[in-house]
Design brief:
mainly beta; 7-stranded mixed β-sheet
């Protein structure tokens, strides 16, 4: 069973870059047909998919966030990261890292990030 754990700051100032790391246990990034995503949920809003990196290393971007989002992985550490640049208070949300393998989804517990000066 794959387990995911987000880590990163709880507070980021406007215009800065938000950086989050997801540490994966119980699975490998390069196992076929695993997709590793970042999803967020702002207060009072629905889930928003931000992007993903596949087992092959291929990247998938959200159209609305593409210009500000960078997703990468470190296979040696079994981690993948999210960077979101030029943040505003509208980027305040709980950020989740997830995995998908065929029909099975696993989620981290989430990391609340507040954007405020």
């Amino acid at each position: 069973q794959v387990q995911l754990q987000e880590s990163g700051p709880g507070l980021v100032k406007p215009s800065q870059t938000l950086s989050l790391t997801c540490t994966v246990s119980g699975g490998s990034f390069t196992t076929n047909y695993y997709y590793w995503s970042w999803i967020r949920q702002a207060p009072g809003k629905g889930l928003e998919w931000m992007g993903a990196i596949a087992y092959s290393g291929s990247l998938y971007d959200s159209t609305s966030l593409k210009s500000r989002t960078t997703i990468s992985r470190d296979t040696a550490k079994n981690q993948f990261t999210l960077q979101l640049s030029s943040v505003t208070p509208e980027d305040t949300a709980v950020y989740y890292c997830t995995s998908r393998h065929y029909a099975m989804d696993c989620w981290g517990k989430g990391n609340l990030v507040t954007v405020s000066s």
